Amino acid sequence: MAPIGAALWRSLRAHQVYGANTNVGKTVVSTLLCKALAERGSVGFLKPVSTGSLEEADDRHVERFAAGPNVLTKCLYQFDEPVSPHIAARSKLKTIPADTHILSSIHRTLSSWSTNGVKNALVETAGGVHSPGPNANSQADLYRPLRLPVVLVADSRLGGISSSISAYESLLMRGYDIHSVLLFEDEYYQNHEYLQSYFAKKAIPLLALPKPPPRPEGKVAADAEARDLEAMKKYYDSVAAQADIGSLLDGMEKKSHDRIAELESMATRAHSAIWYPFTQHQGMKPEDITVIESAYGDYFQTLDRDTKQDAAPVLKPTFDGSASWWTQGLGHGNPELALTAAHAAGKYGHVMFAGAVHEPALNLAELLLKSLGNERLSKVFYTDNGSTGMEVAVKMALRAACVRYGWQLSQSEVKILGLKGSYHGDTIGVMDCSEPSTFNQKVEWYRGRGHWFDFPTVGMKNGSWRIDVPDELSQELGGGEEFGSLDEIFDLEKRSKSAAGQRYSAYIKDTLEELVYKKGVKFGALIMEPVLLGAGGMLFADPLFQFSLANIVRSNPNLFGSSPSTPTSESKTNWSGLPIVFDEVFTGLYRLGRRTSASFLGIDADISVHAKLLTGGLIPLAVTLASTDIFDSFASSEKSDALLHGHSYTAHAVGCQVAVNSVQEMMNMEQRGDWDAFKTSWSERVLSANPHGAVWSQWSAGLVQDLSHAESVERVFAVGSVFSVTLRDQAGQGGYTSTAAKGLQQRLTLGEPTDPAPFNVHSRVLGNVLYLMASMTSKPEELSRVEGLLRDALL
Amino acid sequence: MAPIGAALWRSLRAHQVYGANTNVGKTVVSTLLCKALAERGSVGFLKPVSTGSLEEADDRHVERFAAGPNVLTKCLYQFDEPVSPHIAARSKLKTIPADTHILSSIHRTLSSWSTNGVKNALVETAGGVHSPGPNANSQADLYRPLRLPVVLVADSRLGGISSSISAYESLLMRGYDIHSVLLFEDEYYQNHEYLQSYFAKKAIPLLALPKPPPRPEGKVAADAEARDLEAMKKYYDSVAAQADIGSLLDGMEKKSHDRIAELESMATRAHSAIWYPFTQHQGMKPEDITVIESAYGDYFQTLDRDTKQDAAPVLKPTFDGSASWWTQGLGHGNPELALTAAHAAGKYGHVMFAGAVHEPALNLAELLLKSLGNERLSKVFYTDNGSTGMEVAVKMALRAACVRYGWQLSQSEVKILGLKGSYHGDTIGVMDCSEPSTFNQKVEWYRGRGHWFDFPTVGMKNGSWRIDVPDELSQELGGGEEFGSLDEIFDLEKRSKSAAGQRYSAYIKDTLEELVYKKGVKFGALIMEPVLLGAGGMLFADPLFQFSLANIVRSNPNLFGSSPSTPTSESKTNWSGLPIVFDEVFTGLYRLGRRTSASFLGIDADISVHAKLLTGGLIPLAVTLASTDIFDSFASSEKSDALLHGHSYTAHAVGCQVAVNSVQEMMNMEQRGDWDAFKTSWSERVLSANPHGAVWSQWSAGLVQDLSHAESVERVFAVGSVFSVTLRDQAGQGGYTSTAAKGLQQRLTLGEPTDPAPFNVHSRVLGNVLYLMASMTSKPEELSRVEGLLRDALL
């Protein structure tokens, strides 16, 4: 879908007229509003899709009764039959206009009205809120990207209280703001009275209107029609004379004005009240803060500070290029997830989990154990985010090691084995699992407890996939290699037998023996982020190094300690050597295109941590999965030997149910082949022997190839939804404190303002690395626009 | 409200018939289903509230057309007028039956049917899903506690697609399960075709039925009525002959059966797949796991394992006596919170927060800064739970102290000053802020970093409020005191000038001087949970001790370090001595009856942490509020000096918006005087000089008084929503590992099974302490039932 800005202008106040049902009087209400608005300046009435006979078309009705020099009317698609647009379209049109075309047409129309001095506009829907549009999608969904404020015409008939409230709820859960409610008075049913007090509690004004005269049904004689015309005219005149339409309009005007004033004040207020994560506030100005008005699909709607003209759009679509800090999977404003969250909230709220069980938590646990393809894992522990999930993993692993090896706490401290540049979260316990770095060196209580291997990395340079070995290790590991494809790099069976593979293993074993035997280090866990070390700087680890490290640890059980309970090599699910913890918080659940990132290594962890994409990108939740062997380390007759961890909202029902649906939906997408177009592009280029298992990305192989030749580019890679480019740093300094990527980031922030569909890109940098991340629902045509911007900037 | 069990029986399958709108044919569908069900055994048709003329009453219609020995019909409330029940009731009845009466009547009727061998029952609603019941509440809300599975009759008319989907969404967000959809075929509008494919995606079967013959309107002649009767009979016979009603019923039967089978399997499956928080799994059996089917208000609906008879209710209302681990505030299944969550999900999903701002996060920050009554606080930092919120607080405080006092990291480690028995979360960093205890002593990486004062505690013993001083401190602090009321204990101005107050201050100052001057300890923060130390064992601290400690720290700025930037005593918002951190995660936001627990002490913290009740009890979210002075400690030209902390879902829009609405609603409740009944009961007893500021509880003063005399009781207290009773431990051992409270807990779990409205109580114990916690919406009559159980058990 071409990016579409939410419809908001300073000079033009546009509203969308939704009906609680069909035949509730939307057009009569629109006509009344048009007449009243015309007294305040030029007004536009837009009917995107109209059904019903031409004579009765809603724009014609408005034209007839609200006619005047100040009133413009327009209909985009007209169907004669009084049926749902999806049926009308089906029978009348060879090519049904795509929803994106309808949206662009509306935006274009309103935009031109804004430019031409129109002050107010009404966009009238057809039927009820969920009546299908021409492509059979609910109108409430179809028009959502515009997020026009809503004038809801409620139903004054018997049953209308119910349908009006339900319609309101359907709009609300799609992120609409309802600015006012109108309906006809009915002295018998008195819906207006009930609804008035109902909407007053929501601070939404409701205006009850006199009932219009009955309209003749079917074909009528000319004189009857004339009488009807006269009666309607009288009706409109008498209602228009009423004062309260004026105050309703005043209120709507104020809301529109306040909405923009709010947006314009937000950055300054945020600058004053918010302490931002990972942000140096010194020198930060309000203008540095992006104001996000709303979001839909892959785009934020952000306040456009560059255009101050009254007639220009206030909002601009901004591609969410960090997938909102790596969380986004199923798109912003996803109505299915909103409904799922609401259902769990309505069925449970949050319920106690210690000593209890509810369906969402149980179903999620079982789904993950069944689907992640790791036979070792049999238990699920819930926490709230990746950092707490990793704290639990560390507690689990250290206990398991200490119990097996008979270590007492009074003995010297147990340490972590890991990789340099790893990052496992912001709480102090898991900070200690990473080597000293910019992220932690100034945290007063930090002290790294472990040994971290430096390792070779993967990237494309000048059109070739390369493995680069850090200079200090070139003697032990060799000088790096070139490969014809990513698939070859991931052919670990073959590579492990190569000379490089043997060098890796020998180096790892020698180092460990030195640490354990000579320096007396006690290790309690091997912790790794498979394939990609995210926060450490998007480091694409040579998978062979991770593979070798895990295998050396497992095949040398006596290296780390000795115990009568050390399992024999036959054991398939018991841990050996050290408990292996995979931190898949960032890399798991399709972030790299596969269900798990462990599958790239072919290694089953003993403990595996997942978060971020777990809820499709909606709310925090984390799981720490463990083997029975690890679990059993905590079994004892003492309560105090248990894993004494558990946040209050542990396994909250809303998060678990959203996660069940999200994980299931991503698995369905995989099964349905939703990503086949991406896969094909990569497997064609890399000529993979095994296209099903080929390594692929949502970012095009061509982009990676082309950018790798760019002068300012050090190297590039892409896997799954992640793209990353490392820029040459003039100062020769890489790492988190480098500013080399800032220029590219600014270029993306500038975007394509002169494009017919202008948009820009939000991105994050880690020192001299700029990365972009798609969601699982991103479409190739969307991503190629972003790729175009990258090419413009770098080539 | 008397506790009502969700309506579920093994022998009786009951469904609720909801209509997408009025006049969609609910009664025709019910009649068809009754006729078909009657062939499978006895069937009951229940119309709780009927409107429309007596002749046309829905139960009469069913009686007439589905008559037979197997069909029972019943109407609870009959109104003649074809208007909404709330209007009919208003005009017809002197006393409108309370919603709880209606619910009990339905439950009683279904229960008796179940006992009498009825196999199926339909409970038909009036009008649409949100049509108001007799008390003007939406029926979807009114009937929610029964949570009957729904048969939705969709609307086959023009506009019916929209109203059917909206009705479905309104039911879903209230936690209903929709088991099937029926509607009439309309060849012109073809709603059934669209809805069939719509509901198929939700795995909900839809059955399209032939249209019934048109029914005569108004008064008709006898012969016309006879013809109509004949036509309807024919219609029912012809439709009943169709096979697909059978398979629809089979499907519904299967769903009902599966629902119970699922409930019965859950404990075993959970026992296998779940690693529970704070739980020693050894010896734990599936039967120890409470199966929570759903929850509403103050009650879980739990699987009743004690009654295995087919005719007995499967579910039992269980009072959520731990407020679901201290989180619950606005009731389970709160539709307002569900709708709020859905709106934010639909408007944003989760959006990036670093460098950006959105309305919910900004509004929540401003609301808290404005409302918490602490002028020092000016910045809000977001995290996901209390533990991470406290990790941030520790990072903030330590940095501020180190910067001001010029301490380098290479110097000896900076420590925390706190109270014994404090608890700040489960992540390792904040575990280190507590003294060694059961909770942390076996965590391999734990090492307490601080000094923790023992302190006097408050409780009622034998009818008197007492302050008890630990034996070891009786020489320094005196031997404890008795008070006439809680208010006197909280009269800190007076008490600080007393001999006890002076003893407290002298002791604290002497101890600190010893620690700092003699032992060279460097302190970086004072951290306290004001008034009540929750996880440490519900320790009610003498507020005077906390008050004195804070004041000594602040009034002795040179005790902890020296710096040219030490503020003069005039400064009102700068910290002095040490940054004071209040951990209000448990105690804040009305848990103790007041907006903040700091207000009991009259001390403004420099850093304040809130979570749990922040979202009203729905989803995880935490805030760490800080002063500008603390904030400024991180300002530098170096990015790496910033507070490098931030979880991916930081300031997630759903949580922030739910929090805005929850905090606002709790403030509204306070303002409206919703808790005045509780307050009055306490201030009458304690004869407070200042009833507005009086200390009160939702638990009755009488209960506390009476239980304090019980033989098995050591002491009792209550404040705000928290009640706690400390039991005498025969072994003389208190603390977390004691089992003295287990017996009382089991008694509460047993509940009152012979009560006409049977219920039981879920509670948590901390060693020999059993506590109960209400939500902010708990009603006095509810709590008095629970109090009755406590009295039965202990008196």
Automatic annotation (TrEMBL), chains A, B:
A GO biological-process term: biotin biosynthetic process
Gene3D superfamilies given in the database record: P-loop containing nucleotide triphosphate hydrolases, Type I PLP-dependent aspartate aminotransferase-like (Major domain)
GO molecular function, one term: magnesium ion binding
Localization annotation: Mitochondrion
InterPro entries membership: Aminotrans_3 (IPR005814), Aminotrans_3_PPA_site (IPR049704), DTB_synth_BioD (IPR004472), P-loop_NTPase (IPR027417), PyrdxlP-dep_Trfase (IPR015424), PyrdxlP-dep_Trfase_major (IPR015421)
One GO CC term on file: mitochondrion
Name this polypeptide is given: Onanonoxo-7-onima-8-eninoihtemlysoneda
Presence of the UniProt keyword Cytoplasm in the record: no
Keyword flag Transferase: yes
Entry keywords, A to Z: Aminotransferase, Transferase
